[in-house]
Design a protein that fits this description.
Helix 4 runs parallel beside helix 5. It contains 9 helices and 29 strands. It is globular and about 80 Å long. The chain has 3 domains: 87 residues, Immunoglobulin-like; 296 residues, TIM Barrel (Alpha-Beta Barrel); 79 residues, Immunoglobulin-like (Sandwich). It has a 6-stranded antiparallel β-sheet with strand order 22-23-24-29-26-27, covered by helices on one side. Strands 1-8-7-3-4 form a 5-stranded mixed β-sheet. The protein is of the alpha/beta class.
């Protein structure tokens, strides 16, 4: 076969090999399939998976241009020793590859393009009826969000007690789920939604375990847990917009120990050659984020944001994924006024963290609350979050916390070049600042709620006293001339 005839797969795209194999017994646990992929001196091994109806699949994401060779390894003759070649070509427009950690505390795509996570939460949207899922995707298309937190397993909790559209595992005897037999129909549906999110430029922070359960998924047992993780990673690691979140509120899953969570991280790390981002989300107690398999912090904190300290302690990006939700559902975490949610997000952003913590919990006669089921956004915060995202994406990359604003303002910037100061609920009509001497600066007043930017006029240097609007939710953008 000539080079021109080789199948072409774009860099960070997906190569898939489908093979026919045995159907008898339980192929999910009784048949082994791996693939070895080689490009010059680089060799990558991936796990295959059973997709039902006698179909076995291998998926691989090439990360180097040029010709790749592959061969299969299996304990079944009909799946073993298959080989072939393909050519990895330049990625298409919009394919920037998976998101990586950059310079310890920031994010970027694999091609070096900057990535600033601004996220939302829709825990169980993929488990709702198809019309509601379509409505959610249409709403996301027009939203400012480039990241979403969602669960593999269905959720049993307030406002969310319906049966899922598909279960991740097939039925065994009676009504019990057989945790040794994944449900291909569910996983094909999940993959379709992952693909569609990718087309919208949205990263899926996929939650692998959670405590809100009535079907037994939270207590499958060690063997089933480990097998499930290997299966999920084999199916989804070739999707470049996937992040692995080990759990939502891991510390409420009391039957799982720290050793279990350590083992889960290792399973994912060892079976994911792409190296997708990995985190674990807390309710009250932090997991030890210093452990090498944790790539970034996924934090729940309602009103105390020690982002600067966490950043320094762990030396990793800090993503505040939950700080309360805009809504009126009667719970303290789900009844925030929109101005308070926006205040918290700006506070996180100007202390060195990433404000991926949007969610919406307005009561609905059909119990369709965005935070869990998706649907339509009703609140006032999304357009202000779009404004926040624009401000920070236009700022120089890699801002870090600084002390320019003093104790009564949070600030992030690039020393001597650029600063963003945020005053929160304070309403100063004047502000003294000590700007670096020897440089001249332009200063703009940002109304984070009114979504306006107004220049103060003139240039400023050294010790200055500024006249300000005297109202809350204001910020300053200070740019070196």
């Amino acid at each position: 076969m000539s080079a021109e005839e080789l199948k072409k797969i774009e860099k960070w795209g997906r190569f898939e090999l489908e093979l026919d194999g045995p159907r008898e017994g339980n192929p999910y646990r009784e048949v082994s399939l791996k693939g070895k992929f080689r490009r010059k001196n680089r060799e990558v091994e991936v796990e295959g998976f059973y997709d039902g109806d006698g179909s076995y699949k291998l998926r691989f994401t090439p990360d180097r241009l040029g010709k790749w060779c592959y061969e299969t390894i299996s304990d079944r003759e009909e799946l073993d020793g298959r080989w072939g070649k393909f050519r990895c070509v330049e990625p298409s427009e919009g394919n920037h590859g998976p998101v990586r950690v950059e310079d310890k505390v920031h994010f970027a795509y694999a091609d070096g393009s900057p990535y600033y996570p601004v996220g939302t939460t829709c825990y169980a949207w993929i488990h709702q009826k198809e019309s509601l899922q379509e409505e959610t995707l249409e709403e996301l298309k027009e939203s400012p969000f480039n990241k979403i937190r969602s669960c593999v397993f269905p959720k049993h909790y307030a406002f969310n007690k319906n049966e899922p559209l598909y279960h991740p595992f097939q039925k065994g005897e009676g009504e019990e789920r057989d945790f040794s037999r994944p449900n291909p129909e569910f996983f094909r549906h999940l993959e379709e939604q992952v693909e569609r999110l990718g087309e919208l430029g949205i990263q899926l922070d996929l939650i692998l375990f959670h405590p809100y359960d009535r079907w037994g998924y939270a207590e499958m047992g060690k063997e089933a847990d480990d097998r499930y993780l290997r299966y999920v990673v084999a199916r989804l690691n070739s999707y470049h917009n996937v992040w692995w979140s080990l759990a939502n509120e891991y510390d409420l899953l009391e039957e799982k120990s720290t050793a279990d969570w350590d083992r889960f991280f290792k399973i994912i790390q060892e079976n994911d050659p792409v190296g997708h981002l990995r985190s674990i989300h807390n309710c009250r107690e932090f997991y030890d984020h210093n452990k090498p398999w944790v790539t970034h912090l996924s934090v729940q904190s309602q009103d105390k944001f020690d982002v600067t300290d966490w950043r320094e302690e762990y030396g990793k990006p800090v993503v505040v994924d939950e700080c309360g939700y805009e809504g009126n559902n009667g719970y303290g975490w789900g009844s925030l006024p929109p101005k308070e949610l926006i205040r918290r997000l700006w506070k996180v952003a100007t202390t060195g963290g990433f404000p991926a913590a949007h969610g919406e919990t307005y009561l609905d006669p059909d119990d369709v609350l965005w935070w869990s089921k998706g649907g339509k956004l009703k609140g006032e915060s999304p357009k202000r979050i779009a404004f926040l995202r624009e401000i920070f994406e236009r700022a120089p990359a890699k801002l870090k916390p600084c002390a320019l604003g003093g104790w009564d303002a949070s600030a992030a910037g690039i020393e001597e070049d650029f600063y963003l100061l945020y005053f929160g609920i304070d309403q100063p009509a004047r502000k003294e600042l000590d700007l670096p001497s020897g440089h001249r600066y332009e200063i703009e007043v940002i109304d984070t709620w009114g979504m306006t930017v107004d220049p103060l006029g003139g240039e400023f240097s050294g010790s200055v006293e500024l006249g300000l609007p005297g109202k809350p939710y204001q910020a300053l953008r200070i740019t070196r001339v």
